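user: At home tonight, take the chain set out below, taking as long as you need, and be ready to discuss the fold:
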Amino acid sequence: RYAFAARLERNHDWLALGDLQTTDFADGLTLSRYTRALPGAAGRLETGPVTWQGFGAYTSQLLKQMQLRGDGSSGPYTLAMDVLPGTERVALEVRALENATRTVTRQDLISYVDYQIDYRRGTLLFKDPVPASDPFGNPVFIMVTFEAEGGGERKAVWGGRASGNLAGIPALSAANRIPVGLTFVQDDLADGRFRLMGADAALELGPALRVGAEVARAQGPDSTGVAMQMDGTASLFDGALAMRGRWLRIGDEFMNPANRGLLGGTEEFSASAAWQAGVTQLRLEHQGQEFKTRDLTRSQSRLEGSRSFGDDVKLQLQLTKESVSTRGLTDRGGAG
C-alpha cells in the first residue's frame, strides 16, 4: 500500500513499516487475540523482564468474514469482489452434526499451496475437493476472513501488549514459569469505536502441570461484554496419566471482530483423563455447552478402553451418553 517498506531487527527486537500481519500480536490467546492485515507499523521490544508489542494503522479497511458450505468440489466458490490481495485467511471447519455451533476440527490453509483466489472475479479455487461432510456426517464449512476497502474516511486501529514472566520468585525453580500479560486494542469501526482489553496469566510447573486463565472486556458502539477462560493440563506418573480441562464463559454482549467464532451467551466445559499402562489404555472425557441466546444445552460423556492380548487379539470398549435440551424439551441417548 506504500511506496516504501522497511524492517529493522536487533536480536529478538524488531520494528516494521509497510504491509503487516498482526499474527504474532497476543499469539496463543483466545479472547484477546486481534489478527489483522494492515498497512502501518508494528514492533516488538524487550526491556528487562517485560516484552512490549504493538501495531498501528490509519486506514479505511474493513474486516469481513464469509462462511461457505463445502459442496464436494474444488470450486470455484464465490467470494466478495472487494477482497484485498494477500489479506485473506482461509480455514476448513468441521461442525458437529447435532450442533453446528461446535467446531469439531479446524484446518488453516496456505495460499497457493491449498487454494488460489482470483481477486478480479472474486472466486476461490481449492487444490483438492472440499467435501460437504466428513465420514460421520458432520458438515464442512469454508471460513474466509479478509480485509476489504471500505471506501470511507480513514480511521485509526492500534493495539499494545505488555507481557513478562514472574518466575523469579525464590520459591520456584528455574524450570517453572509464571507468564502474565496485558492487552489493549482500539479500532474505530465504521459504526463506532471498539475497544478490547484483556489480561492473562499462567502457572507452569515444568512439563508436569500448567494452569492458565484469560479475561477480556469488549466495548463496542452499543454493547459491552466480558469473557473468561481457564484451562489446564497435568501429566502424572511419568506420563502414564494425562489430564486436561477447559472452561469458557462468553458474555451475552461480548464480541471480537477478529474472531467471529466467539459466540456471545456461550458457556463451555470440557475435561478428559487418559491412562496408559503397557498394553492397556483407558480414556474418559466429558464436555458440555450452553447457548443462552438459542436456549440450547448439550452434554456428552464418553468412556473408551482397549487392551491387547498378544499380537492377534485386541479388546476394545466404548460407551457414550448424550443429552440435548432446547425449549423445555430434553432428548437423551446412549450407545455402547
